Protein 1
Amino acid sequence: MKDTDSAKRKGEIENIKHQRTAVPSLSGKPGDANVIKVSDISYSREEAINDLRSLGESFPERRITRDFYRHHANIPETAWTALFGTFAEFVRAAGMELSRYENKIRLRTAQHASNDHLREVNEERKSYGNLYQRDKKNRFKTMIACSDLHDVECDPFYLRVLTETIKTIDPNIVCIDGDLFDLAEFGKYSNDPREWDTVGRIKAGLGIISDIREAAPDAQIDLIEGNHEARLVKHLVENSGALTALLSDLHEFDLRKLLGLDKYEVNYIANADICTFTDAQLKKEMVKNYKVYWNTILAHHFPHGKQMALPGFNGHHHQHAVQTFHNTKMGSYEWHQMGGGHVREASYCDGSKWNNGFLIVNVDTFTESVVFDYVSVGSTFSVAGGTWFYRNEDEYYPALTKELQFRSRGQW
C-alpha cells in the first residue's frame, strides 16, 4: 500500500514539473504577439502605440512618463506590459524616443565631436619631437637617461646626483624617459581635491628641466611622453577646453609653453594618439611613445620596448631590472628597466619596494654597440663615474628615515 501511494505521489510531482505556462492568448490564437486580451477585451499593439502617440500630441510640451501615461491612458498597464515588456520599450516602439541603435549612433557622434579640438592638439604635439636637434657628428656618443621624477615627489638627493653627473660627463643627449610630471589630480588614484596643487607641481617639473638644462647647456634634451603627461594633455583639452582656448587667445599660451619646450629647448616625443574614449584605449596607444637613437638604442617609457629587438631602456615601474637578449643583428645585448627619481614612498602603494637610479649609455655608432653603466642612487650614498655622493641631512624624508632606523635597531 505504501509503495502504491509513493508511486502516485511521484506521478503527481512529475506532472507538475512538466507543466508549461501557456503563452498568453493575444487574440485567441496561441503565440500571437500583436494582440492581448484583458478581461475579455482585446488590445492590439497598434492600438496601444496610437494611444500613446495621441497622448503625446495632446501634451506636446510634456515628457510622457510611465506614471503620467498610467493616469491618462485608454490602454490598461497589464496590456501594454504584455505587449512591450517595459514602458521604455513601449515609448521606443511609438517612435517617441530614439531606438537603442539610434541612441548609440548619436552618442558615438557626440564622442567624436568632443574630440575635434583634441585631434588638433594631438597632431600638433606630434611635431614637437624635433624642435631642437643638437646631436654632434662624432662616432662615440654618450647619453644619460632618467625616468619617473614626478615633479615635487622627486628625491632631492637623486636630482643632485643626476645633475652633477650630467655636468661631469657632458653627454650628447639627456633623455627624460617619461613621467617628469606627477599631477595626481589627473591620475587614476583618488586624491583629496583640497590637497591639489597643479600649478606648484608643473612649476616643480619645469624646475627639474631648468636644472638639467643648466647642467647640460649644449646637450640635446628629449622628454618622452609618459602616461602622466598624456593625462595632463587630455585633461586640459577635454575638461578645461574653454580655459585653454582663453589662455591661448589672450596670452599665446599653449602646450609648448606649459611644458617649457621653447624656454629650455626640449624635444617632446609623443607618437600616441590620445583621441581615445577609454583609459584602456589610451594605455594601448601609449606604447607608441618611444625613440630610436643612432639606429642602435631604443628609449621607451614602458617595458614593451624590450620586444623591439634593440638594446634600450624603459621606466614606469620605479624598479631596476636587467634582461639580456640576442639576435643576429645586435648579438647579445641588454635591456634595462630603470629605477625612478620619485621618493620611495607613496599613498597609493608600498613605495619602499621601489629603487632609484639612472643610466649612463655609451654608444659606438660605427659598430652599433652599446655599453650601459647603471647608477644606483641609494638611501645614504651613490657612486657615479667614480665620484662618491653622500645624502645631506636636508635630503632625507620621513619614510627613508624610518627605514634607516629599522635597519639600525631592527624594528619599525
Protein 2
Amino acid sequence: MALGGGMEGRGRLVSSQGEKMENQSPPLNRIKIAIDGPAGAGKSTLARLLGGKLGIPYIDTGAIYRALALKAFRMGISEDDEENLAKLAKELKIEFKRDDRGMRVYLDGEDVSEAIRTPEITRLSSPVSKHPKVREALLELQRKLAENGGVMEGRDIGTVILPDADVKIFLTASTKVRAMRRYLELKEKGYEVNLEDLEREIEERDRRDSTRSIAPLRMAEDAILLNTDNLTIEEMVEEALRVIREKCGIG
C-alpha cells in the first residue's frame, strides 16, 4: 500500500546535521522513540507499526489533544478559552487500550477512537493545542505515558516531550500528498470532502503549528529526516527500523 505517489524521487533519509550516529544499547522494552512531523506525513501509521514490531507501547499524543478538543466541544468551551481548556486538560482522563481492532482511545471510560477523527474535531485540535497553558497541563501526562519506553508521535516530541529519546525521526511529505491521504481516508469513512479545501486546511495548520510561540513544529537537531512522498508503508517502516537498529544496536 503506497503512502503517496505522483512525486519525483523516492523517500529520502538523512541526518539533520549529517553526522554519524552513535550506537547506544538501551533495553529493547525501554527504548524511547520520538516521531515528529506535520499532519498527514504518516506518523501515526509508522508509530503504530513500530510499536507492534518492537513490542513497545504506541503513544498517540495527537489523540490526547483530539480528546481534549472533543470534550471541550461537548461542553461548549471555546477553542479560544485558554483558562478553561487548561483546567479541562488537567482533569483529562484518557486511556489507551488494545483490542482486536488495534489501539483504542478512551475518554472518561468512553471509546472515542472514531469520534476524535471527525473533520470538526480534527479542525479544533490545532487551535486547542496552541495554548501554552494547555500544553503545560498535558506535558507531564505525556512524559509519564512514555516513562517505561514506547514510541510516541506528535509535533514536539523530540524537542519538548522526550528530548532524551533514544531515536528521533522527523517525517515529512508534500502538502499535496498529505491532502490526498486525508481525502482518501475521509472518503472511505463516508465523508463528502473537497481536496482543494483539505490542502488549504493543511497549509494553514502547518503555518499555525510552525509559528506558535510554545513548542512549535520543528525538527530536533539530532533527528533523522524521512520523506514519505513515494514510500510504501512497508518501505517507510523498514527505513525506520534500519535507523533504530543502527542507533540502538539492535540486530
Protein 3
Amino acid sequence: MKYLLLILFFFLPFKAKTHSDVDRLSLVHVNAEWNKSNDIKIKYVKGIKIQFTSLEAQSESFKEKVKRVPILVLYKGNKAIYNWQADLSFKLDITEEEIKNIIEKALE
C-alpha cells in the first residue's frame, strides 16, 4: 500500500505555487504629482508590495502611453501582463479582491 501511494505521488500531475513564483510578480502604481489625493490605499496584495512612483519620473515614451492616471501595472519578470487605469474621474476604482484574482491567474 505504501508503495502504491508513492507511485501515485510521483505520477500525479501537479504544480505547487512556490515562493519564487510570487517573487517574479510585481505591482507598480504610477500617478501624477497633481493627483496624489487619488493614490490607491492598498499597500500589499498576496505578499506583493505595491511600488509607488510618479508619472513625472518616467521616460517620455512611457508618459506617451499613459492616457489617465493613476495606473496600476502587474509585471511578471520584466513583462507587463495586466494593468488597471483610472476612469475619467482620475480615480482607480479597484478592490484588493480584483487584484488577487488577476494574480492567481498569473500564477497558473
